[in-house]
Amino acid sequence: MFKLLILDVDGVLNDGKKYYDLNGNTFAKQFSDKDFTAIKRFRASGIKVCFLSGDNKVNENIAKNRNIDFYYSRGENALSKPDHIPMFEEKYNISSHEMAYVGDDFFDIEVMKCVKYKYCPIDSPKCVKDICQVIPKIGGDNVICELYDILISENLIKECSSKDVYDLDKKENF
Predict the structure, then answer these.
(1) Are 41 and 138 in contact (CB under 8 A)?
(2) Which positions ≥6 away from 147 have C-beta within 8 Å?
(3) Both ends of the chain: CA-CA distance in Å?
(4) In this predicted model, what pLDDT tens digit does every residue of 106-116 receive, in sequence order?
């Protein structure tokens, strides 16, 4: 059983497409509320959840509004994705064998090699699918919702209470 669910954002929680303004700044992405409900269900089941993303402009604000820990993995002074694992072990007081990671792209492979549980959407490249369990959903199409149901059916997590999910929902700023 794992205790921390680490989520890549772009290509997992959304379809990976970004909308840019004339200055080259990202101004929009599309997310599924069912995945955010699934994140609350994971948290209500006792699983900590965090985002580990190379895009901090939009994704960090979304995480903040949803009370989800956010970690940045690209740019000057940022840790690479695999370099976050020792920090997660210390911060969450767990081992890498108690971590699950959901990613979708080449840049997720190295961090996937560091954790016991690894998952990807079905539209991930073959090099990613070859090293993890494939979730039968494309990125942005309720991947985390499907993962929750898979893990319940495999008895890897316990079902949460509705009350706990509602309580978490009340604390979000969206």
Answers:
(1) no
(2) 38, 102, 119, 135
(3) 31
(4) 999 999 999 99
